[in-house]
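Standup notes, protein team

Yesterday: finished cleaning the Amycolatopsis silviterrae set.
Today: Response regulator structure.
Blockers: none.

Input for Response regulator:
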Amino acid sequence: MITVVVADDEPMVCAHLRTILGSAGDIEVVAQAQDGAEAVEEVIRHRPSVVLMDLRMPGVDGLAAIERICALPEPPAVVALTTFDADTYVIRALRAGAAGFLVKSTPPEDLIGLVRVAADGHTVLSPSAARRLVALSSDGHRRDDEARRRTAGLTERERDVLACLGEGLSNADIAGRLHLAEATVKSYVSRMLVKLDCTNRTQAGLLAHEAGLVGR
């Protein structure tokens, strides 16, 4: 069972998401919160698989809550909820550790599938969305320099794998493209997350874009 905590300061949004997700036999919304502080409390209490986090809430906002949740031991996948698909606020959420983002107008059938994707540890972010978000960064040149510095110590094969993460590919897709065993790709990804100090595949994928590794 995939357990979910929904955090949004609009009760109608919470109720809508609970109804949609509750229609899936393998997903259960175990709690909802109306601000970031309450969201952190519910995560600690329920240890969910996934958190759907509105970014703009009064009091403790979604960004602060994401940072606190991602700092917990074995944190859940946190997916940012936003009204716009190219929101600069989302960049900060992804860098804080969010596994991706969903637009609130996402169709119900897609929402259920994307929650399953997040629960499986994959990125909830399309490559085109990643490119738009990186382009929107107000400190793009500084980020590019930092990204190149952080990736400078990677081997050529590691850079290839990181570029594939930037395209949003799964481990199986990366294995097929680079002619590697899927277990080998998984090992590469795990090592790179530690080496690059990235919380998840989404952060690593954004780093790949910022370092100019995607489409080279």
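Follow-up from PR in the comments: The beta strands are 2-7, 27-33, 50-54, 77-82, 100-103.
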